[in-house]
Amino acid sequence: MQTIRLTLICHARTVAQKLACFPTNEPVEETAPSGSLASCFDKTFRLTCGPELRTRQTAAWFGHEIHIDHALRDCDWGRWQGQSIKDLQRNEPEALQAWLEDPHAAPHGGESVAQLRERVAAWLVSLQATPGHVVAVTHPFVIRAALMQVVQGEAFHSLDVEPLAAVDLRFAGRWRLRLSGMSVEGAEQ
Predict the structure, then answer these.
(1) Phi, psi of 87 (to 5 degrees)
(2) Membrane-spanning residues where (predicted)?
(3) Whether pLDDT at 166 is above 80
(4) What's this model's pTM, rounded to 2 decimal places?
């Protein structure tokens, strides 16, 4: 069996993330680090990213040839694009609650979580044909969908915990797993 390594990296922070808004095709808020992020990895890798500006800008920080993969595009937020969670809580509380509770719901007129998961699952299957290391710069929801694909079913045996690993869980009405970002020297925080 040939080995495939996949490193998923969330794009750098945007104003929409800071303001708790559904994204548009906005740029990253941070400046490029002083060195290439490619030095974070030991061996050669294939670099891929979603088509949005924020993923392309973040991927460029690797100083490496980039392949744009439309399967890594962000979720289609439909008419919620650019709207804040607070506005939706005030103006469309039932629609927002339906979307949070039902993975097949798409009250915004865009892509449902279930559709996103299917797209990402198909992308993961496509990676199995080519061994090697893939570094994919993408979006929080795409990374969530990939994680859900990996841990479905027999999740216990799908998780590797390395020595001194830290798992950050938070509770605010529901348990959430928090994955820390890479420390980028030279980028503004």
Answers:
(1) -65, -40
(2) none
(3) no
(4) 0.84
